[in-house]
């Protein structure tokens, strides 16, 4: 049987291996590795022969994978690997384990047997429908992940960011650019000065790649306009203030608009504000514990889609970088 190769090992790399590794982002690779550690622990307790030494033997049996996937459809008690709850896991979690199994075989350079591949696809489709039923009958919440940020909450956070003596300009600029660009925190943090230009009265920002567009096929320019009626949420004014507070750029300085740790700083600030202003956030109509950086992207897309005088759905999807699927002419 073939053995699993240790992902992340650089010793003995051949020319081109680094390029091949790029097919999966390091963050996704880390998530798959964590899931496969869970798989290995489950195999050691349930199917001992499937692990020799510290190595998972490939290819895995179809029945083994099916039993494992069935076990991860239910959440476990925190800190208790053996304590099951009655709460179903989300489809994205279970699908992540399915992809991790495929990743395990691919990294081990072992072809996935057809019966196993068919079972993985069928399990994903079946669980997706099961989750829909759970939401329909109330077993699962209709809302998954972070909730969309309302426009009122967005304005409130912008005011709080402006009054922050510790974070100030960087946090405010990160907030309003993420909202106006409809980007994830990772994409906003990656903006460089050479990604920004002017076209008429619009600030043009280019995003090299996004989470759902790793090849940069949809990296078209995004136009951002000033908001003279509400200076507290004007992206042009906010960026201008940030540039002036940073001072003149000297040779050798980072070309990034924000600090390398801005995503973590912003997430920390957002969490603290939501906790400190929990009562105010509740009045606005959002639950502070369900707010995260991704709430911005969800919030602006929801606001635009639900506005009677808002842009067409296609425009919103293109701005967010979502796939339009089989669009009919």
TrEMBL record:
Would I find ATP-binding among this entry's keywords? Answer: no
Mention one GO molecular function. Answer: DNA binding
Listed GO biological process terms: DNA integration; DNA recombination
Q: Which sequence ranges are marked TM in the entry? A: none
Per UniProt, the keywords (alphabetical) are:
DNA recombination
Question: Which InterPro entries does the record associate with it?
Answer: DNA_brk_join_enz, Integrase-like_cat_sf
Protein origin, superkingdom: Eukaryota
Mind telling me what this protein is named? Answer: Tyr recombinase domain-containing protein
Organism of derivation: Aphanomyces euteiches
Q: What is the lineage of its organism?
A: Eukaryota, Sar, Stramenopiles, Oomycota, Saprolegniomycetes
